[in-house]
Amino acid sequence: MNITLQNTGKRYNREWIFRKFNYTFLQGNSYAITGANGSGKSTLLQIIAGATLHSEGTITRKPAAAANNYNEETSYQQIAIVAPYLDVVEEMTAIEFLQFHQNFKPLVATISDILNTVGLSKAGHKEIRYFSSGMKQRLKLAQAFFSDTTTLLLDEPTTNLDEAGVAIYKQLWQQYTHNRLVVVSSNDPQEYENCTAVISISDYK
Ligand SMILES: Nc1ncnc2c1ncn2[C@@H]1O[C@H](COP(=O)(O)OP(=O)(O)OP(=O)(O)O)[C@@H](O)[C@H]1O
Hints:
InterPro entries: AAA+_ATPase, ABC_transporter-like_ATP-bd, ABC_transporter-like_CS, ABC_Transporter_VariousFunc, P-loop_NTPase. Pfam families: ABC_tran. The protein is α/β, with parallel strands linked by helices. It has helices at residues 41-49, 94-102, 111-117, 133-145, 163-176; strands at 2-12, 15-25, 30-34, 56-62, 79-82, 151-155, 181-185, 197-200. The chain has one domain: P-loop containing nucleotide triphosphate hydrolases (Rossmann fold, 3-Layer(aba) Sandwich), CATH 3.40.50. Helix content is 25%, strand content 25%. The strands form two sheets. It has a five-stranded parallel beta sheet, with helices on both faces. A three-stranded antiparallel beta sheet has the order 2-1-4, with helices on one face. Strand 1 and strand 2 (15-25) form a beta hairpin. Residues 12, 17, 35, 37-43, 187 line the site of adenosine-5'-triphosphate (ATP).
């Protein structure tokens, strides 16, 4: 999917978070959105995802290749997102959670392979409420990277990860970002070291 923002701005109450954001995000490329704490990176990512409404300007999402059955409503099925504010279902086990997720977005590997890849094979039958914060983050990454979507949005993707978790993140990036649109909101260079473009939100104030 290609996503274009034209003169897009976001205001909370009287405060403009950013304005006149003009950019086209193209499938097959990866982009980092950087900026100080509170500068609006997460807000911009949520607007790109369609989870938050913008206050001015436009945003359009179009398939990268001609698609017969495309419409704006189904475009959300083409977006997978990882973000600290998006919660997993605590009452489910990891396996149940991935099975549940699969009803909305197909996964590109078996659940057992997915859990194995992110180092959670022994925790498949454990309820997520008993997961550590790093285990939860690994599950969130798994759910997004393994979703069969054209678009992958990552907000602070290595939050709570240990060294091995960061290595898994980099491996997922190598294997599962090919020909997708990837947008990372981050202040940590190792989270976006492979991005083809770096956008500073402070340029749109
Ligand atoms: N729902 C909301 N209502 C009012 N203000 C909000 C809301 N969400 C975010 N903000 C404000 O918008 C600004 C940008 O927040 P945002 O979370 O997008 O920043 P960020 O760059 O992702 O920060 P960080 O690096 O700390 O994660 C902040 O000033 C924040 O207080």
